[in-house]
Amino acid sequence: MKKITTKFIKEQKGVNKLVMITAYDALFANIFDEKVDMILVGDSLEMSFNGRDDTLKASMDGMIYHTNAVCNGAKKALIIADMPFGSVINKDEALKNSLRVYKETKADAVKVECNSANIDIIKYLVDNQIAVVAHIGLTPQSSRSEGGYLIKGRSEAEKIELLSIAKKAENSGAFCIVVEGVISEVAKLITNSVNIPVIGIGAGASTDGQVLVWSDAFGFFDEFKPKFVRRFFNGKELILKALDEYVSEVKSGNFPSQNESYNK
Ligand code: KIV
């Protein structure tokens, strides 16, 4: 089992589709580790794990705690820690907080939500030996200021802006780009215009790989289902079925049996 590196990820462009999934703890990181290329400790944990309405309350301490848990569980996949809202508001904060990730966890890279105003931060981090994934398009940390989760790339101006941010991310040294909530045709143009892998979420099938939030993909989070999510497992339904069985076995006195008890 060879540890996946940023070099390996870059080499997959045009060769193999890449698979990224989120994880927030050692248990699931360990299950996913063998099969995926990258594990993202996403700030989506604030919603799917912590039950909040958006990701904005994620903190550096929280991300570091969960990144350590994921690093304890995963030995092979490349691990990416998401930089939470407010942690990269200027170059100095971005470097200080990214250095925390490298010094306090074994994460291989950080992910930064980028727009044309903060794209310079990537070069500063890369120049200081931090590996960076640039997250562009629909950036959930902008959802409150933009008034919702807005799909990007519908207008010519947005298309041009996205292509320019993607190119700048590549030129600044990002080793990978996550494109979220972008019209498929524009995601394809972005993918074809850069020489680093582009991982899509809600960005169609032409990207170099896909990322999903694990609790969406496996049916544990069912409050809403974005159009781009495919449920590969009915997690909640199956857990509830097993839970019913557990409850009924306890209530009927059938659990624990003699074999499940210490008799001597
Ligand atoms: O926080 C997260 O899980 C993410 C993915 C949706 C890309 O940013």
Which features does this protein show?
single chain, 264 residues, alpha/beta, TIM Barrel, 2 domains, eight-stranded parallel barrel, 11 helices, binds 3-methyl-2-oxobutanoic acid, 3-methyl-2-oxobutanoate hydroxymethyltransferase activity, pantothenate biosynthesis
Describe this entry's structure for a reader:
The chain has 264 residues and is α/β, with parallel strands linked by helices. The protein folds into two domains: 228 residues, Phosphoenolpyruvate-binding domains (TIM Barrel, Alpha-Beta Barrel), CATH 3.20.20; 30 residues, no CATH class. An eight-stranded parallel barrel has the order 1-2-3-4-5-6-7-8, surrounded by six helices. Helix 2 packs across helix 4, helix 5 crosses helix 6 and helix 8 packs parallel to helix 9. It is globular and about 70 Å long.
Structural topology:
Elements: H1 6-11, E1 18-22, H2 26-33, E2 38-41, H3 45-48, H4 60-73, E3 78-82, H5 91-104, E4 109-113, H6 120-127, E5 132-137, H7 143-146, H8 156-172, E6 176-180, H9 184-193, E7 198-201, E8 209-212, H10 214-217, H11 235-252
Parallel strand pairs: 1-2, 1-8, 2-3, 3-4, 4-5, 5-6, 6-7, 7-8
Bound molecules: 3-methyl-2-oxobutanoic acid.
Subunit structure: Homodecamer; pentamer of dimers.
Main location: cytoplasm
GO cellular component, one term: cytoplasm
